[in-house]
Hints:
4-stranded mixed β-sheet, 8 strands, elongated
Amino acid sequence: MSHVKAGGTSKNNRDSKGQRLGVKLFGGQKVHVGEIIVRQVGLNKRAGKGTSLSRNYTIHAAKDGIVQFNERRVRLFSGKSVKRTEVTVE
């Protein structure tokens, strides 16, 4: 037999680490090939000239240069036109 009274089960003991998402290099900063500019879930910011988009929507620098953020209009599948931020390296 047990010599300790039964304890209740804990249901709220799970926690995951943060994903460290967000903008890593801001406009006007120098960037080298392959550096991460933006980590994101989904296509919030678009990859423009001088950048590449990976499978998890991370935007990398495709060449050396200076990071720029520009607003541009994008047409959605429904036909609606919305503003989105475009990341470029010049």
